Request: fold
Amino acid sequence: MNFSLQRVIFFFLIALGIQSCVNDIQKIKKITFKSTDPDEKTADLVLTYTDSGQAKIRLIAPLAESFAKPNKIIKFREGIKLEFYTKKGALLSTLTAKYGEIDELNGSMFVKDSVRMYNTVKKQELQTEELFWTRKDSVIFTNKLVIVKTPKVMLYGDGIRAKQDFSSYKFIKPKGKFDLD
Reply:
């Protein structure tokens, strides 16, 4: 075989090899991407919202998954913890749940499954199975069964509306007997 023919064959094989190494991104997405997959994942998330240099709210989650479509939603499938702080930066209350979602477009949050909110100043605890929060009025609420425990009494009812820091609240349908001193 002549030297120039070997060269042509060699360059042809190199060109063929380079051509075969090109990946079509659309084909890869079809194989590896599911429409139910999140657009972003964050592990061990700690996010602090501050105002004038003071912590106001801290969000802690082992896993946060962001979805851009159809709505901009962040899901916390492995649990969520929120800490609310006073104007002076002291811890006022905490909220925990096994699942949570933040709807960024509507400015709302939904938590469910073993929801607990504890006000450290008043030493009162709220327990329910689901709770909603709206940024517009900074109120938490639910229509589900709610139990509120204080150092002196245990109150319960269907539904509650409260300030986001759980410093004050109102039952929608209170139930049970209450002993007034």
Helices lie at 3-20, 25-32. The radius of gyration is 27 Å. The chain has one domain: 37-175. Residues 37-175 form a domain with the lipopolysaccharide transport protein A fold fold (CATH 2.60.450.10).
